[in-house]
Amino acid sequence: MAGPPIHELHFAEEPSVDRVPGPNSRRLLDRQEAIDSSAVAYPNDIPLAFEEGKGATLKDADGNVFLDFFAGIGVYNVGHANPYVNEGVHEQIDKLTHTVDFPTEPRLDLIDKLDEIAPGSLTGNSRFVFGGPTGSDAVEASIKLAKYNTGGNGLLAFRNSYHGATAGAMSITSNKKFKKPYAPLLPDVVHAPFPYPFREGRSPEESVDRALEEVRAIVEEPYGGLTDPAGIFVEPIQGEGGVIAPPDGFLSGLREIADENDLPLMFDEIQVGMGRTGEWWASEHYDVTPDVMTTAKALGGNGQPLSGTMYHEDLDTWGPGDHAGTYRGHVPAMVGGLRAIEYIESHDLLDHATEVGAWIRDRLRDAGEGDPGLGQVRGKGLFVGAEFVDANGEPDDDRVEAIQEYCYEHGVLVWTAGQYGNVVRLLPPLVLTQQQAEVGTEVIADAIEATAELAIAE
Questions:
Q1: Which of 55, 236, 418, 457 could bridge to 283 as Cys pair (CB 3.0-4.6 Å)?
Q2: Number of folded domains in the chain?
Q3: Burial class of 453 by CB neighbour count within 10 A (0 to 12, 13 to 18, 19+)
Q4: Which residues contact 370 (CB under 8 A, 6 or more apart)?
């Protein structure tokens, strides 16, 4: 078996928190505020300075131990400091770290392994191009690949989406406030509706039909608004948008429209891939294969920066140097990625994520029974979203902020999502034990109950 069993990876099964932030965290937070960029965001919501991580647990600078239910926003799928991954990375660092795109055994082994676990018909028919340290780099490569192969310029993306912070990736991201200071970005990008039955007040079937009708109109109608389309870019399950898993029929409908119009269908699997949803790739839940697929975050295994784009071999029309980047040869990250995949396989973490994630969603639904403020619990695998609304059915971001604060104070780190910030988003490491899931979810359930009382009082 690759590495130790999951129950041996952590500091403890339960959190141990005194006062937060403690004096050492406070000192480091103050120092950061004095010298770091004003763009720093995460400590504004969870004021902590971390010292060490193991498995699904984090220790701060004051020795407080937390259950980690957001895993670096999906980076640590096999947990912090996984010894099987770290061992290989350490050995590689001592030998060779950077090779641009010269061949190495780890590079080729990882490409072979990714082809082996590729979704659908990409298995045995794929090519893989490594990118720089962030998912945005993989998105940029996908945009370039689509334009290179089609000769087109226009891109169709979706509302409520997030694809990254570089210029091209930001162009297909839908957040207007996020993009406005940097406009103009890429021209000729049109955003279609993404099926969101809960927010739309429609049935799943109606929501899918409406979205696909809009997509078809944008691509095919003479006044559809998108000139010379180059491709369709979508998250199989929206992450930052609020853990929105589209109803059945949506991705297959996009596949049909793309095929009929000779357009590449591109899936962003950066947050939801590498086993996060209980399948290697979220698209596998819908039995739909993309032409192009991006991956990053958990790809580096133990937080090593690495991104990449998998695509059908028929699209491999680039000439030498037509896509480039210095850090596409980060060999320790490639070792980390390969070992992470081996660890997931060896410990059956896809099935584990499916079972534990279903348990968490059921427990949260039970916690919200009789609470009209908990509008919906959704997701797949260990990718969970709980959406909160006020008495008028409007997004309740204040309550979600209070839930996050309560969890933080009681030793469970959760994050938020949704265009209105009214979704509690959980994406713990896949190595989270059942006992840790129960302990952490009880804290979240207590937070739901405590904040429901406050909501009623208001």
A1: 236
A2: 2
A3: exposed
A4: none
Q: Do 50 and 101 fall within a single domain?
A: no
Mark which of 328, 346, 364 sits at the end of a domain: 346
Looking at 11-164, list the stretches that DSSP marks H as alpha helix, in order from N- to C-terminal side: 23-35, 42-45, 71-74, 83-93, 105-116, 135-150
What's the pLDDT at 457? 55
The sign one gets for the Cα dihedral 44, 374, 350, 124 is negative
pLDDT digits (tens, 9 = 90+) for 227-271: 999 999 999 999 999 999 999 999 999 999 999 999 999 999 999
Cα→Cα distances 340→191, 235, 304, 333, 386, Å: 35, 23, 11, 10, 28
**Average per-residue pLDDT in the chain?**
96
- Same domain? For 221 and 194 the reply is yes
Pairing outcome for strands 412-413 and 415-417: unpaired
Q: Are residue 96 and residue 198 in the same domain, yes or no? A: yes
Range of the domain at 331: 85-346
What Å distances lie between residue 224 and 151, 187, 218, 228, 323, CA to CA? 19, 15, 4, 11, 31
At 22, the amino acid letter reads G
CATH code of the domain covering residue 178: 3.40.640.10
Give me the DSSP letters along 167-192.
Answer: HHHHHH---HHHHGGG-S-SSSEEEE
Residue 50 domain-assigned (yes or no): yes
Residues 306 and 423 in one domain: no
390 neighbors 396 (Cβ within 8 angstroms): yes
Q: How far is C-alpha 413 from the geometric centre of its chain's CA atoms?
A: 16
Please provide residue 357's backbone torsions phi and psi, each rounded to the nearest 5 degrees.
Answer: -65, -40
Note whether 327 and 132 are within 8 A (CB): yes
The DSSP line for 115-143 is HHT--GGGTTSEEEEE--SSHHHHHHHHH
CB 266 within 8 A of CB 233: yes
Q: Which two tokens stand for residue 81?
A: 């400091």
Rounded to two decimals, the pTM is 0.96
Residues, the chain = 458
Q: Is residue 1, in this structure, part of any structural domain at all?
A: no
Indicate if 261 and 391 belong to the same structural domain. Answer: no
Do the domain assignments include residue 168? Answer: yes
Q: What is the CATH number for 54?
A: 3.90.1150.10
Residue at which a domain ends, from 289, 318, 346: 346
The two beta strands, 374-380 and 308-312, are: unpaired
